[in-house]
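Workshop exercise sheet. Pairs work together: one partner reads the sequence aloud, the other fills in the structure field after running the prediction. Swap roles for the next sheet.
Pair: D.N. / O.F.
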Amino acid sequence: MKKGVDNRISILCLGILLLMAGFSCQPAIKTSDDVKPNILLIVSEDHGQDIGAYGNEIVTTPNIDLLAENGVMFLNAYTTYSVCSPSRSSILTGLYPHQNGQIGLATHDFEMYKSFENIPSYLKNQGYKTGCLGKLHVNPEASFPFDFHEIESSNFAKKKMGDYAIKAAEFINSSGGKPFFLMVNFPDAHFPLLRKVDGLPTIEVNENQISGTLPFVGVDSERLRAQTADYYSQINRLDESIGMLMDSLKSSGKAENTLVIFLSDHGAQFSRGKTTSYEAGLKIPLIMNWPKGLKSKKLKSEELVSVVDLFPTIVDAVSSQEKAELPGKSLIKIARDQLPGHDYIYAGGMIGTAKYFYPKRSVRDKQYKLIHNLYSGERDPYFTVYTDHVYATVLSGSSRAEIASSTDEIKAVYERWESPPAYEFYDLETDPWEFNNLADIPDYQEEMERLKLVLTNWRVNTRDPFIDPIMFKRIKAEVDSINTLYPNHSYQKDTAFHWSYPEYFGDYVLNAEQN
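Structure field:
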């Protein structure tokens, strides 16, 4: 770790060091299971590739950077949906949200169709001790058999961040002769934006370090630069939290044979990021580090990869078997064996709550990106959440006044977000933040039609319920009924409330699998 960052250990990690001292005198238990790697899955919240290793020179992330320096960094990694619960459902089950049913936020009572096999259930059957720190946020939680679950709240107040490392040490050192799987869910960089809590981060980012807002936002103002500084400070705190966690792992003596995977669940909650199908919402950092199993260092892979690849990767790490029924690929084979990634990356979206229903689908290849707005003709309801600051914590959105003072190009970008056309088409090589929609340009029609066909075939092959007119009509009717009966998300307070879609969507998806 870099000089200066080590100072954070002096107070916050004292409990960890004492705890580790108590465990370090215990002899290691050797069993035949030792050949299986331990697995540490680190999932952070709401940020894109704003990490030092990915080229951001404002943040201070030596601990994440070290994981990348000694491992594999995926430059083109994507989530399946830029909202928390659906993304995490894909991480855990290896399925797209419309395949498993978690098409919205768990806090809004969306749930999987059934208890699908998932990372903790699979590893438990492989003899692993399973643990989780932080929120799970996928329903039903009983589907995920964790032996140990602590700090179960979201902790968006970012209090006592040192507790994650202390609890991790407790779990790791109680695993005995079993290999362990530990999922650690950190609350940074989720909103509210809190520049400093309990002395963390030790290195803050201030407005005078920010020359402009995040590039995909397009709008710039002094207010937004201050929000960006707070966001970067949260990433610094995330890195220091990961540093404490890695100290716990190293002190256990089990780091050498531990596969560490770090990623965020989706992009930042700034305009054109979280909840959208744009790159800023879907593109994420993904780093894999395994001293014993991955000898390559400083490897930067440009292959297209997805969070649906995590379950197959873990299966590959612990077994000679494969999960052929899953849509993902092993990241180990992509990194170590130089096998190709995906030709296409897919994502879905329904915005996550009944009030903000606006389903979308997207596909990208190495150059082009197609977004299909399934509800085109209607305004995207989440647009006003950002522009009008509907929720007190989401002040990072570009205001209407800020948009109005921008260039004509940026005004058009925001108009397209507010009232999307049926299709958006972008050349990501020349336009990485999707400012210039090429859907109506004749020279691009052939490429766009190609991706339309690719996207349709994927939706058919994965039994996307939204492609079926009857299913679409049913979910829209259910959403309308809920919004009438329960205005402003009041169904969250009704303990008797239950979505019906898991039954009829589930029949549509699962019966096809059985036939």
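Discussion prompt: Confidence is low (pLDDT under 50) at residues 1-33. What would you look at next?
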